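User: Structure with NAP, tokens only please.
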Amino acid sequence: MKVKQVNIAPNGPKLSQLVAGTMTWGEWGVDYSPEQMAMMIEHCVELGITTFDHADIYGHYSTEATFGEALAHIGGDIRDRIQLVTKCGIRLKSHRRPQNRLKSYDTSKEYIIRSAEQSLTNLQTDHLDLFLIHRPDPLMDPQEVAAAFAHLKEAGKVLHFGVSNFTPTQYEMLSQCTELVTNQVECNPLHTDPLFDGTFDQMINTDCRPMIWSPLGGAKYFKGEGTSVLRVRDVAKSLSSKYGNVGEDIILLAWLLRHPAGCIPVLGTTKKDRIRDARLALKTDLDRQDWFALLEAAQGKEVA
Ligand SMILES: NC(=O)c1ccc[n+]([C@@H]2O[C@H](COP(=O)([O-])OP(=O)(O)OC[C@H]3O[C@@H](n4cnc5c(N)ncnc54)[C@H](OP(=O)(O)O)[C@@H]3O)[C@@H](O)[C@H]2O)c1
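Assistant:
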């Protein structure tokens, strides 16, 4: 079964219904070589997982470039068969950015344009399919961001724009000035803010799909301690057998996919078999009471 593509918003782009997150593919995780990354990319594409999520900062500003080398290694028409998403706006203290005196945010026009151009160079491509502002910047001037986006779009360097970790009001403010197609946010049974703070309501009302980071809470559900984690793990385990002996990770992904906002999970795994199995979540249709059983386990109490 191949993962299908879905429109993230009325004017596109089309992304695969499951996205491969690259945060731990490089120096921040397993440190794949370009050849190993090329194998991961080909594996994902064979499964229909054609969209790859990046940020300039991953691997201390190095993972995009390794991925770019991997694409060059694969060659042929690989770029035409995938969608590249990346983010900018966080300035990390890093030996690769000695000018960054402290961790800060930057959404100035000049910085956004320079970041996009650097990502194009790193990824060895002439366009980004989707470019996100990584975190809300308290000094963000929406007109300035819109001007940067317009410049990049006119130059054909970026096709679509969005944000990440924005509150609904921050999203609304920026979307008054420029077209946004998504808000990439954290969501899982132990982090349910987007369900209740208006984030998912806004996505539904604007006909946009949210992208979901940490769909499994990082590795928390597998390695973490704490009573709420253990309760969720127990419920997920008990549901596994009911839904065809799928893994607990599949139950947690299915929990997200059950929401009418049309969530697009960004998978954080670095393992081929886990990426392959994630597809099972697309045909695991949790019934309402099971969905609420996971919520209840996370919250430690029944709903009001
Ligand atoms: N926009 C943002 O601010 C933001 C923030 C964070 C992340 N992201 C994006 O979201 C992506 C996913 O985030 P995430 O890494 O937190 O995602 P996640 O899928 O919630 O967690 C991934 C972690 O869970 C482990 N894992 C997965 N399945 C497992 C299983 N069955 N048993 C044991 N361990 C398991 C993985 O280990 P293995 O590798 O060993 O499978 C990995 O350490 C990132 O790659 C990045 O692209 C965006």
